[in-house]
Amino acid sequence: xxxxxxxxxGGGPTAVINQTLAGAVIAARRRHxxxxxxxxxxxxxxxxxxxxxxxxxxxDGDLMHIANTPNSAxxxxxxxxxxxxxxxxxxxxxxxxxxxxVYIGGNDTAGTLQILDRxxxxxxxxxxxxxxxxxxxxxxxxxxxxxxxxxxxVRAFLSVDLDFRALPGIYVGIVMGRHAGFLTASAAAWRxxxxxxxxxVYVPEEPFxxxxxxxxxxxxxxxxxxxxxxxxxxxxxxxxxPLAGHLIPAHRREHDAHGNIQLSGGDLGLALQSxxxxxxxxxxxxxxxxxxxxxxxxxRRGAYTIDYESWINPRGRLRRNAPAVVAVAITT
Length: 332
Description:
Strands 3-2-1-4-5 form a 5-stranded mixed β-sheet, with helices on both faces. The chain has a 4-stranded parallel β-sheet with strand order 7-8-6-9, sandwiched between helices. The protein contains 11 helices and 10 strands. Helix content is 38%, strand content 15%.
């Protein structure tokens, strides 16, 4: 009996999310010789709009090229479906005759799958393939996407620490992470001595204040003559409000579709740098916002390097769940 797998990608792209995609497609084809593999463009949007690409004829070589390309090859979305949207998605899956839907992504993607699973009320299988640079999925030690992004962060801080040894001053690198500080904490992974940067690390899980930052920088300058700081974009001040809302003027604040203050832009860095220059007028102070750079960092050395966790994880899940249909969407 022919089977159909639907596969899609959600949330922010990473350097290895396409490895998960390729691993899932190849595993499905090897386990089910007559499988039909569909790709939904831009996640659940493609399913609702009946916008698929048939990946059945893609060679393993083509899939390997996709696997080694940083981005989300199928296109992505951050849509959070309401009841009406869920109905359109489920109708799209039924129209595609999908036996299973594999969705690659992080917390929001997992939440979307849970909503669809409850709404479906039938035999269709819903499989979550974890991907998030924030590393904040429950019951995971680490997730695909985190290691490659963390490698960028740790290399960046190692390099900038050497820069500020040559020309001492204050450096702050603002790293992605609205609620989780794993990526920011990775900045200290290669520290070997107390004098190595980053000297200060601030994560969303711990209370933060600008006054504390200034005091900590003063102490670090007195001790080492320079200060390198790793800071999560999501650090919060008194009352749990994000620092961005505290420092950025109201007319400069941007918000996403869900009402959250945009944290990955450069306004927080500019506001913080201005404050540091006021507090330390005679010291060189620089603030960089890493933004999307860590998640898109292409760390591979060869054309066919495999991130084995990203590659093997979906293959194992497909073997255990043995879904009937895999659909994958790729943008043109």
